[in-house]
Amino acid sequence: MSSYGARSGAAAGYMMKMPPLADKRAAAEALCSTCSGPIYSQGLNTFKVPMAMFEVNRAKVVQSMLEQDPSAKGLILLEGGKQQTRYDTDHEPVFRQESYFHYLFGASQYSDCFGTLSLPDGEATLFVPTYGVDVATVCGASPDFEFVKVELGLENVHDVVDVKAFVEREMKRLDETEIESSSSDGLNNEEKKGGGEPATKSKLYLLKGLNTDSGNFATPASFEGIDKFRDVRDDESLFRSISESRVFKSSAEIDIMRYTNWVSSMAHVEVMRAAKPGMMEYQLESLFQHHTYTHGGCRHMSYTCICACGPSANILHYGHAGRPNSRLLEDGMIALLDMGAEYKCYASDITCSFPISGSFTDDQKSIYEAVLAAQIKVMAMLKPGVSWLDMHREAEREILKGLIGCGVLDGGGKDLDEVIETMLDADLGAIFMPHGLGHFIGIDTHDVGGYSPGKPARSERPGERKLRTARQLDEGMVVTVEPGCYFIDPLIDAAMSDERQKRFLTERVNDFRGFGGVRLEDDVRITSDGCENLTLCPRAIEEVLDVMSGGSWPPATDVLPEMKRKWATCKEGRMEFLDM
User: Using DSSP, how many helices (H) and how many strands (E) does the chain show?
Assistant: First the structure.
């Protein structure tokens, strides 16, 4: 007998022991609201994550599956992330859990696992590896199943070697449950499909689908012998349900994202205070990572830090291979720092721009104010029902308006709004903001669900085609709002050769070659009637300069309420709102 043992009692009797799905979700939400039950924390003043949050996630996915097919039954099977090694060496990079698996099980610290959810009751089972003496000597003792069960708030935890036997047993049990149930209802053999066969065969639901940001596919779980279930395998339903569930954040998920934004915002402030000519870009990266790990318990960054100063700031994803945050900071440069930490696998994505010298030049101020105006304009319009594509265009309008104001573009003395619309029709906005306005964010920085089946398709227009979603916004979504303005030589050169675009450019544009760029990025929650800004960074020019000169943060007064920042701090592991 495998380690999970045999079930006692009739299958139907067992099924009656599981609480209804709605009751499980309600109980989990109650635990989340009071931060009760099993808790994840990195200790000290780091955030306390109620593990019931993942029970809510599981209930959402199972409910979605049942809404797709009310008769759905079987097992959802996922395979967790594997501990990798670096190339051909035995060096192990720090493990980070696969995102879909984490969404359902919250097992951020356990690699090489499998997990199942039963349909329709939503019972969760995790399978973790155990070790022999040699591995245990190096890596520590095998996990205690009962400890893991309590730690993660799961119904069952077994050895990973038992996956195959468990799946076989559970699939059979679920089919027998229907036969037994129909017999107890007085149905005779002729009324049962196939004379004893269940009317609906149990399915094995696996995760497979396209990530529209990366172009990669989620990999279905696999173990030796899984081909036995090829006739009842479903590779489509789960991806639709779990991807769409991840688009809409629960209250508990919003709380943890509020924490990651708080930690990362305070780290950005510390970097602003420290930055000065003579430093290296990588030192700014180091300061950010130090603050978020030391004071926030954030071991992982949400993505590779972008510490782009001076001309580097016109490279949108600076900091990667070939551009390793290695420029010397010089007086007169503007810094564009795009950095965010994650906690319990939930991301933040924040960009600040500021002058290294501690004061803006006139040109830097003009571009910064144009980008800030775009952020403010979008924030004022965000609410359920708004098209993200329309928001992108609004940001382009504000940036083009600012470029006309500082003489880079020629408004021709005509009606300003009319001229800007003509510029937009000529795709001039994409020359200066060649990326999308923002994206969904959650467990992944570029979170899933952007171009789900049945949702608006990707635009083919320049700029717009870089958008990671074209959906209408709805309550519970979290998006980044990150307008930017850059002076990228190849794009400027192309515009000066384009008949539609070159007539708007002036010689002033050449003054900005080598300027770099400005981007401002906040993480924003869509509420029932508007939005809430989770990011708490200095945004008004006076805020930026005050912080750089040693001023306190958060400020005593919010001088820019248009940014809709919801001021908060972490106390004793919980987020508390501040009265400004």
Answer: 16, 22
